Amino acid sequence: MASEKEFISLLNQHQKIVYKVCNLYMDRHSDREDLFQEITLQAWKAYGNFRGDAKFSTWLYRVALNTAITFFRKEKKKPEIFSTDIIPEQPEEPDTLIEEQVKAMYAAIGDLSKIDKAIIMLYLEDYSYAEIGEMMGITANNVAVKMSRIKIKLKEETQKQLATN
Amino acid sequence: MELDELKSLINHKLSTDHTTRSAEDIAVLLTKKTGSVIGKLKRSLRIEIISCIVVIVLFFYLGFAGGYRSLQIYFSVFGVLSFIFLGFIIYLLRRTIQLSATTLPVKSNLQTIVNIIEEFNRRYFQFNMALIPICFIFSFILGYNEPKHIPELDNFAKNLFSAKWQVIVFGVVYMILLSVGAYFFTKWYLRKLYGRYIDQLKECIRELGAE
Fold first, then answer.
1. Residue of B23 and B20 predicted with greater confidence
2. Which architecture does CATH list for A89-165?
3. At what angle do helices A140-164 and A97-110 cross, to 10 degrees?
4. A83, A158, B120, B204: least surrounded by Cβ within 10 Å?
5. Among A10-14, A102-106, B106-110, B203-207, which stretch is predicted with the lowest mean pLDDT?
6. What is the pTM of this model?
């Protein structure tokens, strides 16, 4: 029988992972809260079968991404646009070039498909292509091809965003 | 600007700006209800199981306690069919619960969810469609062979029809309309329940498969 206390303690230590996934997949605050709750519940249900042969963080990523990808809202009141509101604004000072670029890259990541977002998330966490492939259920070669395509797409989108600003 | 050049900044931003939850907050979340489609499917399967049990008890009661032999056979057969359907729903619920307890790779997880929902849709549709001809055939056979007469039904038929061919035409039109209506309604209902969701999951699977 899985220990609830143990699970809560582990999730508490790794909650940044869940928030990252929520921030990446959900635009609105209320949706992020709902997704956080859903990931927590799914992780708790699956925790009984977590044998510890993988790191908890890797296991939690898998649960969180599975939940986020299969989590659909019935109706969207506005189109899903990746929010940049999680980037702290400093209105007094003009944005530096690097901040502008980060914002533009953020927006570009927000326009990616659910699958591409998952791959990017794991890439940002420095997982190898083989590890990403294992989590996604595809080959490392396929991950490499997708990553290369995503990088080009992000570069183009970021340039477009910067040009319009 | 390349992704790799902004990697650490984006990663940092993604993980920092959020409301940190305490252990108590997380403990409260564990008591909440799931809002996922699989969670909803589980709930609807449980409701189907309860409804099925109620229907089986009712059908067998009517089958054994019914005054007319035709109704006894009719409800007993439907009771048996509902019993078979109950077995299938329990099997599907077990598969759904198993899925919640395992952590599969993304692609396998998507495929398993699609398989479960499609199987549910397929069997639900087959069960509903199979009931229609069985219902008609039994109604006719048992109606003709019923040793006792149902006065209310006889009076109704006498008032409505003057010739035997009218009864046959009415029966055929009624069967066609009911079959076509039930076919399209069941298709529409299942599509409304999970159609869009399955399409979205299949799109993700297709994307994962493509190089």
1. B23
2. Orthogonal Bundle (1.10)
3. 120
4. A83
5. A102-106
6. 0.81
| Pick from A9, A15, A63: CB nearest B103 | A63
Q: Cite the DSSP H helix spans in B1-150.
A: 3-16, 23-29, 37-65, 69-101, 106-145
Q: What percent of chain B has pLDDT over 70?
A: 95
Distance separating alpha carbons of residues B76 and B73, to the nearest angstrom: 5
Average pLDDT of A138-142?
A: 94
Chain B residues touching residue A137 (CB < 8 angstroms): 104-109, 208
When CB atoms are compared, the residue of B29, B101, B108 closest to A49 is B101
Region A129-146 average pLDDT: 94
Domain residue spans of chain A: 1-88, 89-165
What CATH number does the domain located at A1-88 have?
Answer: 1.10.1740.10
Q: In the predicted model, what is the mean pLDDT of chain B? A: 85
Q: How far apart are CA A118 and CA A109, in angstroms?
A: 10
Could you give the CA distance from residue A7 to residue A1 in angstroms, rounded to a whole number?
Answer: 11
Separation in Å, CA of B204 to nearest CA in chain A = 6
Query: What is the ipTM metric for this complex?
Result: 0.83
DSSP B137-192: HHHHHHHHH-SS--HHHHHHHHHH-SSHHHHHHHHHHHHHHHHHHHHHHHHHHHII
Q: Does A69 touch chain B (CB under 8 A)?
A: yes
pLDDT value of residue B53: 95
A151 at B interface, C-beta within 8 A: yes
